[in-house]
Amino acid sequence: MDVSPDDRQALTSEYGPDGRRGRHVVLIDIATASLIRRIDLGPDSRPHTALFLPDGLRAVATMQYSDQLALVDLEAGIVLRTYPTGGCEGHMLRLSPEGTRSYVTSREGAGTLSVIFLEEDRPPVVIATGLGAEGLAVTPDGGEVWVANRGETSISIVDTESLEVVATLGSRPAAGRIGMANGYAIVPNGGRGALVPQYLRLWDVVSRRLVAEVPIRDGEPEGGNFGVLIQHGTALVSDPGEGTIQAFDLDGLTGRGPLAIGYDAPDGMAWSPVRLEVVAR
Description:
By secondary structure, the protein is an all-beta fold. It has a domain at 184-281: Lipocalin. Helix content is 1%, strand content 48%. The chain contains 1 helix and 24 strands. It has a 4-stranded antiparallel sheet with strand order 1-2-3-4, with no helix packed on it. It has a 4-stranded antiparallel sheet with strand order 5-6-7-8, with no helix packed on it. The protein is globular, with a radius of gyration of 18 Å. It starts with a strand and ends with a helix.
């Protein structure tokens, strides 16, 4: 899920179950909660992550089952071109701050981060990070990419100048998402069939120091995956299995409370200041 630079539109993807893989990215008008258009990426695409480029007119989306990245014209509703990722099952995607590079994690094979140069005629640079490379975040200055290796207990930090892993942090088992803002990174663990005690960890990005961790559920081994977002000094954690979104104060992960309950499998999140007119009425 992503929100446009003008906060008026949202973009998501139709990932689909294994037996009915999706092939569309979906553009939504936020104020009216209405569909603008669905854009077909073609068979064997199964897009997972779709993000607006800074111009708000184009987007990029992972095509997981063809190991490509699609560049999409949102107004025309067409794929302008595709880029090879050089990885295996490219799942998640983030952009450099200026939008000229895409970073794609591939969770199969050795587990890699692909650097894709959107404005250059240049092959991708593929960097081995660790088994099950999945969740990722780019620091606000664009200098580092943090990659959560779900198949290992590690987070790889990649320098975007040298394109090398420059540090490795420890993680809890099956950590597969990273949210980053306000100088902090939040990392939950659990999912992809793993039965583990599930925690939310808070890292200081500059010092790379673990600041706090709290149980997401009750601390007993469970399955389930989580989405994360940092917004306005609050760490948000979606729980598809429980149908909830929990909120934590970013200051030490204190003040925990429910933001939403009874939803159908909430996962990826994004924030817009635009008020939903359908709710206001």
